[in-house]
């Protein structure tokens, strides 16, 4: 017996099933809409959110974000709100408190850094010399079908990102990496 294929239902379909289930019950709604009863129960728990979403959205699919983007300002505002709920009036949630909190919880600010490769001083001379030797080689080999040689030099940018502190220190050593050169050789068959 073949397994049933999974179907994604949009919010409008789910709301219709919820309305039918309120009038007739979960099991009759499941039979009427050809779905499982547990789906109807789950959708009834999500009713408020389903009514607020777009009708065509296949809502509430996928996992929640595991590491959401949080700024220091967000941490401070949330801490101040919690302090107000607990009636702690002298708490200020300043920047220094925030950084100490982040240190205690082993959090760090996520930073993107770009390290660019510095081109050598005689870069243009080397490329010109290379192209001259290749064009002379090309002119000698025209008879055998070699038609053109192209050189594309790309300077790559490296980005590193450290999201949370897992070790006491992370050593990042960057050497001079060579540029990526792409050679395009074209043969013309006559």
UniProtKB/TrEMBL annotation:
<keyword id="KW-0238">DNA-binding</keyword>
<dbReference type="InterPro" id="IPR018586">
    <property type="entry name" value="Brinker_DNA-bd"/>
</dbReference>
<feature type="domain" description="HTH CENPB-type">
    <location>
        <begin position="70"/>
        <end position="109"/>
    </location>
</feature>
<dbReference type="InterPro" id="IPR006600">
    <property type="entry name" value="HTH_CenpB_DNA-bd_dom"/>
</dbReference>
<dbReference type="Pfam" id="PF03221">
    <property type="entry name" value="HTH_Tnp_Tc5"/>
</dbReference>
<dbReference type="Pfam" id="PF09607">
    <property type="entry name" value="BrkDBD"/>
</dbReference>
<feature type="domain" description="Brinker DNA-binding">
    <location>
        <begin position="6"/>
        <end position="51"/>
    </location>
</feature>
<protein>
    <recommendedName>
        <fullName>HTH CENPB-type domain-containing protein</fullName>
    </recommendedName>
</protein>
<dbReference type="GO" id="GO:0003677">
    <property type="term" value="F:DNA binding"/>
</dbReference>
<dbReference type="InterPro" id="IPR009057">
    <property type="entry name" value="Homeodomain-like_sf"/>
</dbReference>
């Amino acid at each position: 017996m073949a397994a049933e294929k999974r179907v994604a239902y949009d919010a409008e379909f789910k709301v219709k099933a919820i309305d039918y289930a309120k009038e007739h019950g979960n099991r009759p709604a499941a039979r009427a809409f050809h779905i499982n009863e547990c789906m109807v129960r789950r959708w009834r728990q999500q009713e408020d959110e389903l009514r607020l979403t777009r009708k065509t959205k296949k809502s509430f699919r996928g996992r929640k974000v595991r590491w959401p983007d949080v700024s220091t300002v967000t941490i401070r505002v949330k801490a101040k709100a919690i302090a107000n709920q607990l009636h702690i009036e002298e708490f200020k949630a300043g920047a220094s408190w925030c950084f100490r909190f982040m240190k205690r919880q082993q959090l760090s600010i996520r930073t993107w850094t770009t390290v660019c490769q510095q081109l050598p001083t005689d870069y243009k001379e080397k490329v010109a010399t290379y192209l001259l030797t290749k064009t002379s080689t090309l002119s000698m080999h025209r008879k055998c079908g070699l038609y053109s040689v192209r050189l594309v030099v790309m300077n790559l940018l490296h980005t590193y990102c450290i999201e949370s502190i897992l070790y006491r220190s992370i050593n990042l050593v960057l050497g001079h990496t060579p540029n990526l050169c792409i050679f395009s050789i074209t043969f013309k068959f006559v």
